[in-house]
Amino acid sequence: MANQQQVQLLQSGVEAWNLYRQAHPTLQVDLSEADLSGVNLTSADLHDANLSWANLNKADLTSANLVGANLVNVSLSGAILAHANLSNANLSGAVVIYPPIPASMRGADLTDAILVDAFLNGTDLSNANLSNANLSNANLSRVDLTGARVRKRQLAGTRTHERATMPHTGNCL
Description:
The protein is largely without helices or strands. Helix content is 14%, strand content 0%. The mean pLDDT is 93.
């Protein structure tokens, strides 16, 4: 269960949140099961945060720092994670319900991220870096991988990538 004081501080604004994180760099951040739907979290420092089972539908996490974050079973429908740093993050079981609204991870860094059993239907992963990401059993149907850095062997381990827009051959190694 989320630390309600941390949830309230984060909802009050990213500037205050980031100052709090700078003042308490080793503090455990627990936002598990928090409802952060529609919240503007642009450039938020959420590294190593526990966001498991959180509702991030329609949240704006553009350029957010989610390095090492626990995003297990998070709901991301309509979320914007463009240019977010999700390296070493665990997104196992993450869910994007599309239609009606896909998620955007355009240009995101998902290096070494874990996306086992993630359901990312319709997600924009164009120009994303998926180097060494674990995509085992992920559902990537209708995903846009244009310009993404991903290996063919990673895609071979997915549950499906039916109707996905594939990366240009230069990036699909």
